[in-house]
Design goal:
The chain is an alpha+beta fold and 388 residues long. The chain folds into two domains: 196 residues, 2-Layer Sandwich (Ribosomal Protein S5, domain 2), CATH 3.30.230; 173 residues, Alpha-Beta Plaits (2-Layer Sandwich). 39% of the residues lie in helices and 22% in strands. It is built from eleven helices and twelve strands. Strands 1, 2, 3, 4, 5, 6, 7 and 12 form an eight-stranded mixed beta sheet that branches. Strands 9-10-8-11 form a four-stranded antiparallel beta sheet. A hairpin with a 6-residue loop joins β9 and β10. α4 packs antiparallel against α5 and α6 crosses α8. The chain is globular, with a radius of gyration of 21 Å. The model has no long low-confidence stretch (mean pLDDT 95). The structure holds adenosine-5'-diphosphate and magnesium ion (MG). The site of magnesium ion has 4 residues, from loops.
Length: 388
């Protein structure tokens, strides 16, 4: 077991590594998506929340133009220069850090005359588990540099910068749900995001008031967003929209699905159907949670999972088993969350039963011969901010 990092421990790690105190410590959370999967890059609706698991960035100015970064999660540090900042030169994980600086420049932040930084990162967001450790690292670095360089960029602009880092420097063709949740999250609230309207509204979730907890079941099946199925699904969505004669799938409603069924091949139709019905489910979830409370959203979560399993085909045996077992053990609702092909499932459960549900899932995984899952509770938490 590693120690859970904190702002103080991250500052201490900075001091141990660089031999001076950092100027400050900033942090940004991972997120869980309550509902709305693969809708963000279709100009649609998503409803994630920021979680307590965060990435901390202790940052100190240098007097030259170098950027140095160490991460507690990685054996080797990385370095770049403000004078030669190119995604081609970014190696592995450091692209998430230097990519933010590159994206700032791409979006019009002049880098001339600025000093470089030393950065120490620490995180308790599991990497590659669908909880968006990638947005956490990007957003922590972005708000730190926004303060350190006194840029005065809005949170909205920081969302676009972090998304550009992920798309243009890392090369993962993702939307900006993760960055929006990480930068706009509030304790106790979900963030209802309308990607097309560029709005992100806090919606109270009342989990604690209703004695509910949200379990995350990390299947430990690894996904790689930069390659494989994610990009392929994204292309299917673009093709479906083009064949239907609309700029994006956001422009289709459930009433258009009959026409889509006639026009599209079976696979493309099912991809389109998932996105169109998922948008409707997100809107309904936000309405229902406000009108009737969180116990009333269970069926929407279950329908969302079925849609991803059967129509979008991004689930896997481990995710399906996690969802089925949670439901069979009394969960109010459950679904896979994140981009798919592994990662995590969520289950909304009575607080008193969380442990029992977790144990049932662990037992089912053992029985199936799957790697033991990691099960933990998450609460809707604060977005990115300065800690020290
Ligand atoms: P997810 O966002 O679901 O965790 P991604 O594949 O999008 O998965 O991002 C995970 C990658 O982000 C890691 O493989 C690593 O390259 C980088 N990363 C995230 N957090 C850190 C960290 N604290 N230190 C170094 N690299 C990190
Ligand atoms: Mg990610």
């Amino acid at each position: 077991m590693i120690d859970i990092p904190s702002p103080e421990s991250t500052a201490q790690a900075f001091e141990d590594r660089y031999g001076r105190r950092p100027d400050g410590v900033w942090s940004a959370p991972g997120r869980v998506n309550l509902i709305g999967e693969h809708t963000d890059y279709n100009d649609g609706l998503v409803f994630p929340f920021a979680i307590e698991r965060r990435t901390w960035a202790a940052v100190g100015r240098r007097d030259d133009r170098l950027l140095t970064v160490h991460s507690g999660a990685m054996p080797e540090p990385a370095q770049a220069s403000l004078d030669a900042l190119s995604p081609d030169d970014f190696d592995g994980w450091s692209a998430y850090v230097f990519g933010v600086v590159w994206a700032m420049r791409e979006r019009g932040v002049p880098l001339e005359g600025r000093t470089g930084f030393d950065i120490m990162l620490a995180s308790d967001v599991p990497l590659g588990a669908g909880l968006s450790s990638s947005a956490a690292i990007e957003c922590a670095v972005a708000i730190a540099l926004n303060d350190e360089w006194d840029l005065g960029l809005t949170r909205r602009e920081l969302i676009y910068i972090c998304q550009l880092a992920e798309n243009g420097a890392v090369g993962a063709p993702t939307g900006n749900m993760d960055q929006t949740a990480s930068l706009m999250g509030e304790p106790g609230h979900g963030v209802l995001i309308d990607v097309r309207a560029e709005t992100a509204d806090p919606v109270a979730l009342h989990f604690a008031d209703e004695d509910l907890e949200l379990l995350v079941i990390d299947t430990r099946v690894h996904h790689e967003h930069a390659t494989g199925g994610y990009g392929e699904r994204r292309r299917s969505c673009e093709e479906g929209a083009a064949a239907m004669g609309v700029p994006s799938l956001r422009d289709l409603a459930e009433a258009d699905l009959a026409r889509a069924a006639e026009l599209l091949d079976d696979v493309t139709f099912r991809r389109v159907k998932h996105v169109v019905t998922e948008n409707a489910r997100v809107a309904r979830t936000a309405d229902v949670v406000q009108a009737d409370g969180p116990r009333a959203i269970g069926d929407l979560l279950v329908q969302s999972h079925a849609s991803m399993r059967d129509d979008f085909e991004i689930s896997c045996a481990e995710l399906d088993l996690a969802v089925e077992t949670a439901l069979a053990n009394g969960a109010v609702g459950a679904r896979m969350t994140g981009g798919g092909f592994g990662g995590a499932a969520i289950a909304l459960v009575d607080a008193g039963r969380a442990e029992e549900v977790g144990e049932a899932v662990e037992a089912a995984f053992a029985e199936a011969g799957f790697t033991a899952p990691i099960v933990f509770v998450v609460n809707p938490a604060a977005g990115a901010h300065r800690d020290l």
